[in-house]
Amino acid sequence: MPGRVKDDRKEYFNSIVQPYRQGELSKEYIDAHGTKGIDPTPEEIMKAKDVWKDIPGYKTRGKSK
After folding, report:
1. What does each C-alpha distance from 10 to 24, 26, 31, 38, 62 come to in angstroms?
2. Could you tell me the pTM of the whole model?
């Protein structure tokens, strides 16, 4: 079962990524969902970073569901 969880995290990366991590706005979230559901300032959007690089599925997020 643990292997399936890892595979699902890779396949559904964009669906499970969160908008913030430790107070930093996620560029991955903005790329996948825009600012729907969050209310960042224009400065936050400009400073957004890829904060989810360390989780499985990051490199293949373009193919994510």
Report:
1. 22, 17, 17, 24, 11
2. 0.79
